[in-house]
Amino acid sequence: MKTTKVLFMVPYPLGKAPSQRFRVELFEPYMKQVGIHYRIAPFMDDTTWQHLYKHGSVLQKAWGIVKGYLSRIKTVFIDVHSYDYVFVHREAAPLGPPVFEWIVSKLWRKKMIFDFDDAIWIPNTSSQNSIAANLKCFWKTKYIVKWSYKVAAGNDYLRTYALQYNSNVVLMPTCVDMERMHNSTKAHSNHKPVVGWTGSHSTLPYLNNIIDIISQLQQKHDFTFIVIADKNPELPLKDFQFIPWSASIEISDLLKMDIGIMPLLADAWSEGKCGFKLIQYLSLAIPAIASPVGVNNVIIQNGVNGYVCHSDEEWANYLEVLITDAGKRKQMGLVGQAYMLQSYSTQSQHTTFLQLFS
Question: Which domains does the chain have, with CATH numbers?
């Protein structure tokens, strides 16, 4: 039997970016299991990644991008010919038009699989990289979708977008590995509750919508609010703790939470989000509270494994319910954990992933 060979063109160094870790890298054991020969080819190296979101570091960023393009040129003109499928996560290169994708799909006629988990056709860049924003070519997403053999979309909103340009679109939610990684269960008890949020510097602004409510609740109830991220937001709260994100202790840090939150703005960019924070919380039996935006309404079964909040009053009320009731936290958390195993785990979705290469 012929061995299937897959080349993954991904943006980030291995083990760094959540989307890539949980939509590509987590499926490596399953590919090995069925004998798929694969290679993951990042655009960026570790040094470039470290400088990417810092102010300044212009020369380091520029040289890192140049090195990335040189590496990608070699991959696309030499290495790609050894593979049956080329899997592109988000984009083959961060700047400029989709030249590499065009070469792979049109010139070499390779079966290209495109995977995305955000509304990446909508401009959305950080202030640290405002110059690069002009070179991002957000319009390229529709062409990459159009040229692809198959498309893997992280939620129904993204799938609907992709179906405008390609009929072969598969819904594949972002997953967690509930055997090897997210394999613990929060032990809820009557200790001092901890409300928490995890994310990156780019999503920290969403916390602005909830901080006043957290502050008011801390005047009534004794609980800690924690943030796990790559940047300290230095929130003006009575009881606040910042935990620098680290892959090696990510799960143990998440387990410090009793309640996980995911506030969002109701806009097109947020509609494209795949609810990964909620998936992480619930997989560990931590009940979740979120804004009723996009896939949040699917992941959270309102009143069953958490709550979706349509107003500040609902945020305050539902947070208070869970802060004061450890039994309810435990009950909701366990229901949520079972739901994640059924629908948002690599254990439930690895067949969908592997069928992309057929």
Answer: 5-172 (3.40.50.2000), 194-343 (3.40.50.2000)
